[in-house]
Structure prediction request, 950 residues.
Amino acid sequence: MSTTQIQVEAEVHHDDHHDHHQSFIRKYIFSEDHKTIAKQFLITGIFWALIGGAMSVLFRLQLGFPDMDLSILKPILGKWLTANGKIDSEFYLALVTMHGTIMVFFVLTAGLSGTFSNFLIPLQVGARDMASGFMNMLSYWFFFVSGVIMFVSIFIETGPASGGWTIYPPLSALPEAMSGSGLGMTLWLVSMVFFIVSTLLGGINYITTVINLRTEGMSFARLPLTIWAFLVTAILGLLSFPVLFSAALLLVFDRSFGTSFYLSDIYIAGEALPNIGGSPILFQHLFWFLGHPEVYIVLLPALGITSEIISTNSRKPIFGYKAMIGSILGIAFLSFIVWAHHMFITGMNPFLGSIFMFLTLIIAVPSAVKVFNYITTLWRGNIVFTPAMLFSIGLVSFFISGGLTGLFLGNSAIDINVHDTYFVVAHFHIVMGSASFFGMLAGVYHWFPKMFGRMLDEKLGYIHFWISFIGIYMVFFPLHYIGLAGFPRRYYSFTNFDAFGGFTDLNMMVSIAAIITFSAQFIFLFNFFYSMWRGRKAPANPWRSNTLEWTTPINPGHGNWPGEIPTVHRWPYDYSKPGAKEDFIPQNIPLSETPESNLPEEH
Amino acid sequence: MSGFVIGLGLLLLGAILIAIFRVTTLIGIAKGDGKKRVGSANGVNAFLFIVFLVGSFILLFWYSYTHFDSYNLPLASEHGVVTDRIFWITMGVTCVAFIITHVLLFVFPYVYRFKEEKEAFYFPHNNKLELTWTIVPAVVLSVLIFTGWRAWVDITAPAPEDSERIEIMGYQFAWAVRYGGGDGQLGKSDFRLIDVDNRMGIDFSDRKSYDDFIPLEIHIPKGKNIEFKIRATDVIHSVFAPHFRLQMNAVPGLPTSFWFTPTKTTAEMRSELENENFNYELVCNKICGKGHFAMRYLIIVDEPEAYQEWYKSQQAWLKLNPDYLSKVPADLREVAAISAKMDGSLN
Prediction:
């Protein structure tokens, strides 16, 4: 605890004379303030979400309206359009690859964790800033560089990486195999290396801050579930991203230095390659050792945010706080030993398939516990539907729908037939994509007042929610049927096969729904930027919430609290405590001030 | 020009929407909406959840029922009966969970929407409840795991000895298929021997290879065990035949296999589906490059007798490509010519 004290004093001191003459660059660009860095992550994440979303609209046009003439997009797409105005089949693959990469890594990892871990950890644990503001700043700027490189790769002559976001070699290792595996793939790998560095710098900071800089009284048993989720997410990232780094490094060796880690027995472009003895399956093991925890790196922060918002707006304590922590830890642990369920039919030993099926289905248990706890939290609540609350309920719905289809895919016997079909696309877009995306939006709606000191417009929020919620189901639910009919993913067109002649109308409907859903996000964008400057001024605690961030000034400066950091006296979920004057008791209120509502064990 | 008009129209539309937004916001402020703790929108949102629940369930069950035939793929293999059964058991279990949780998730918000005079129930935990819903899913999942595991072990067990062995090789962007010929055994192959004609890299120093034949479509006999020996030469492909519930990746450097027993001939399936043009298809299901979406191959299931006839009528690859006789070691050329049923004498 002594380190905390020193840190606090240093920061208070530093705060006094610093706030006034910080240059523009230090305040808004190379800022070390966690709140500014969080906003940088958020804005960058929104930028990437727009690019990733626009890409999905493009390939949905191809899938829904295969005969459409897209010549109007010639100025943007140039030679990626064929002479009759259709998307080139190789560019189609580039689009799905970039869409996946951008959404998984840049939007739902950096945009979500980067924004909310940065913003909320110091505010909710009661710290002046992150353990290392400098590393935190580096984390953002490494992410920025990573993004610039990825962005550049979209515009090069041979096109960006196109082998799918999972970049399985040999396809990704051999430039002869597809043009995207040339310079585009090199840039992808370089970009990811920067991204991994960024994630690690951020993650170390989050973990250190949560462990060392909690204010007095903020024991682990009093941490809001958001912080638990961010902490565990950071640990997952710290353990799994280096494995992706090693996978990428070996791939770089195979691509550029003639090694054979992943390559063997290859005859391509008219010649037999000298590589012998490598295994493409090795890459898949390494990739999914990151890839599966990555699913939870994306999802856990969203679940943490949801826990907080559902509890606050139900005006009830989250049901089963300890079980929620237990299930976060359980999910996190299990997420490291289920990776090979992505590989049941890749030629991996079937015995391993049995083991991984068993482990995979176990992970459904803590997930189910979370769902039941959310629902019980709603039960007999006094529910206020803020936009954040709507998005949180939507998230739980997605988590259920997508989680249940996981029981099909995790079962290796069923997976034989649905592997790599649209059923999988439906599954992970609902459970990982949409659920996390809703968590992110819920977080923005909930903490916008703390970020910018103003309120987002609620009515626009409601419209945004209902269009997005219905739209996302209209986009992804039909894909289950298409997948069961055997339609493979990553297909440019289905006209070559008799078996895939159907569903043209359904595909069209999905594409229209996708365009509407994407367009609805502009309502949010307008609301976001408009309210930032012209929204209603926020009150100090607009949601009547218990957590510490609402005890800061409406526009907290560098250092967060002008005076002393508040001390914590209770858990964060004292909502509607019997006998209490209000339906919430913030964490910094001592038990001695609330004798009327204290439980027997609290006297 | 039309682009400009559309752009202008969108701009105008945007401007109008923003104006409406401004006006309603100002009216709201004038009416003092911000002062009340919860506005009228609360009830509307709560009600919309019920509307959504009812509407989406009707849509879901209506579509699933009326369009059953379009997404339920006809089945033509023995192990597929088992996997389909597990699929439908899982579907039953998940549907129950799906309906219960969603009814609660959307009805609770409506029933317990905010009311000024009401107070929420302080209910932080209940060990009995929590234990129940940890154990119940765990038990249900164990049953699913167990049935799935048993099926998986059977399906992935080594192919029976009497299986018909057929080699399938994926390459950008087509399939090549090889049968053992008269001796029923596949000869060796090596990727270093591949050239423009010898696409499969058949090794002609191996006696078993002389009578191997490479047909343009896959024929398999109904009711017999078939083992696909699967490989790839450039990137990963995936052998996917949805009607047989069959899928296995084709990996360069790692031969894989999948065995199954077809239960319906192509002709039987045609009459069952009342579709004269029906064919079983082999599909590539692992992203492999530009032509990924076009790697089609036909699988034709024959009655065993018809299959035998077809098999015998096939000509050895070596016979069709006599130039490759020069690759056969000199002392074996005669054997090769006989076993490939090559006409004429050897020079």
